Amino acid sequence: MNTDVRPALPGTAIPDGCLPWGTEHTSRWTRELPPRWIPVPRVGLRVFKLVLSAGVLAALGLTLEGLPPYLAVLAGLNLIWLQLRPEAVRVSAPALVVVAVVLRPAPALPVLAGAFLLAATTSAVTALRLRARKRQREAALAASAGVTAPVPDAGLPLGRGRLLSGLGIILILAGAPLIATAGVWDSAEGRQAAGVAGWLVTGLGVTALLSGELGRRRAVALRAAPAPVLRVLTRGTRHGDAKVFAADDLAGLRPLFTVGMAPPDQDAERGGKRDPDHGTDPVADAVTDVVLDVADLAGARDRLDDDLPGPLREAVLYGTPYDGAEIVLVTAPAKAGDPPVARRSSGPVRPLSESGVRRRLVRAKRTAARAAADDERHFGLVEVARLMDPEPVRRWRAGAVDRLAGLLMVAWGIPLCWLPFTGGGTGLWKQFLALLIGLHGAFRVPVKLRWRITADRAGLWLNGLRGTTHIPWDDLRSVRRESIELKLRWHGDGSWTVSAPRWAWYQRRRGVTHPYDALAAEVTAMRMDPALRPTGDSEERERGRPLWPLAVPFVLLWLTAVLAGMVGLPGR
Questions:
Q1: Rounded distance, CA 319 to CA 151, Å?
Q2: What is the C-alpha separation between 339 and 13, in angstroms, rounded?
Q3: What pLDDT is attached to residue 65?
Q4: Sign of the alpha-carbon torsion through 305, 309, 310, 316
Q5: Is 264 exposed, middle or buried (0-12, 13-18, 19+ CB in 10 A)?
């Protein structure tokens, strides 16, 4: 690893008496983290999806047993809040027990036992996590030795959490009509589905509202008085977040926590102060805050193995770091001679446990090894492709693996989508969802079966549903096979993707090259070496025609099947 810590913070950016947060003190801080089995979200959007899915499944599953929708959703939300907002569990867990005791829905004994068990478990886990926060604060305060300093941006307008709170109110208002109109459904299944959807949307709105208010309250409290300060090292991530290390961890071996950071103010980065002549832009600040807050709520910005290349940077941390805290970092600039950069947290501090760091390092090494092996194979094929002779026009099109992909899609999709129309007693909302999924498949199958890429001296031509897309050679960024997908990317955030089955073990054993690997290597060779590019111009008929006419029969066939399933097939 790079052990050069440059550029350093100038002395004027370091408050008087500010102490380094060294390994001796950070070791005590990390020892005070919750037990490793405590669910603290640290691995990004994957955790949010898992928790949300668990909450939804819990709510739906309990509702199928005859529970009122609001009780079922409250049980599911306890699992969500346990991960995202443990502060709410101190209220929601007792509320779950009270509602279960008062309502006593049948079967009463299993419901009461389940409510007490869920409430007791989530309350115990929450208590451990909140007590760990208190110990983390105490350890960080001890390390600062009572040295405080005013927060650099204390006098600036603070938009933290405002629009996330607004999003919560919108979700609550959206869930209320679903709850109010649940009784108009004819079937019991429809009433249950509408009730669960309404209460779940309302609960997520409460989650967003609570997240916004907690974040804003803690950010305001941080700026209300001089805050504890510590000298640390930081490294940015590709998502604009910060990873914080001990001041003497020059190799960056043990990150202490990650935290989402707002972009630095562009009008003035003079020691963390804004130029008073330029003022502020509340609208821009609000938009930035909502994007960062929603990303924080979703956990999408937390990564461990996405460090930006380059050395660690010295920084001063304002605030007391703990699980869920708000902080401000004043970091050394990227270029020597520039002023220090002050950045406020846009999300809560997310501690990283010792075991979690080890697991993620192992996973990162495995991922890096697989990526290196893929790169080696890819560039080996590129070198082989460089031996080919230029042709007037080169063409690639869907082959056997694509036809197999289309067949699997149809074989999997038709029974799954058609069953709601023929099973009897299926709710209208399930039929509508199946109709949309089937229409998506009807438009996607022609692309899988009839895609075409044409290369000429002007660039690449891709045929699609609406027509042909032209990508000049200078705009082409990359062509790679990633997992089971072939991905083309070009400037302007353009991309094109098609997927097909791949059996890596069989390819390695038999020495077989996947068609997507061969295509990616040939196009990459042409992109890197202009002498290998085609020498002629392709004609319009060679570039492929729009694929939407081929989708029309699939759409009509699907709609006919749906109609037949709804009105009843002959002989049924």
A1: 8
A2: 9
A3: 60
A4: negative
A5: middle
> Residue 199: CB partners within 8 Å, gap ≥ 6?
59, 69, 70, 72, 73, 74, 175, 179
* pLDDT per position as a tens digit, 319-328: 999 988 999 9
Asked, as a colleague might, if the bond just before 110 is cis with ω within 30 of 0, I would say no
Higher local confidence (pLDDT), 272 or 400: 400
Q: What average pLDDT does this structure show over 159-183?
A: 86
Residues 536/457, Cβ–Cβ less than 8 Å: yes
* Alpha-carbon 112 to chain mean position: 36
Integer angstrom CA distances of residue 96 from 64, 77, 87, 117, 129:
18, 10, 15, 11, 20
Residue pair 258/243 in contact by the 8 Å Cβ criterion: yes
Strands 494-499 and 452-456: unpaired
Mean pLDDT for the stretch of residues 400-417: 84
Residue 408: pLDDT over 50: yes
How far is residue 225 CA from its own chain's centroid?
34
Question: How many other C-beta atoms can be found within 10 angstroms of the C-beta atom of residue 565?
Answer: 20
Task: Tell me how far apart the 2 most distant CA atoms of the chain are, in Å.
Answer: 88
DSSP 522: H
| 338, 421, 506 from 509: Cα distances, Å | 55, 45, 5
Rounded Cα distance, 81 and 93, in Å:
10
3 state SS of 370? helix
CB contact set of 228 (below 8 Å; sequence gap of 6+): 140, 141, 144, 146, 147, 148, 318, 319, 320
The region, left, alpha or beta by phi > 0 then psi within -120 to 50, assigned to residue 425 is: left
How would you list the strands of the sheet with 468-472, edge to edge? Answer: 394-397, 452-456, 459-463, 468-472
pLDDT tens, residue by residue, 427-460 = 666 777 778 888 888 888 888 899 999 999 999 9
Per DSSP, the three-state class of 462 is: strand
| Residue 551 near residue 446, CB atoms below 8 Å | yes
CB distance 32 to 132 below 8 Å: yes
- Token pair 């109609």: residue: 563
H/E element, 177: helix 162-180
The pTM for the full model equals 0.63
Give percent of the chain above pLDDT 70: 81
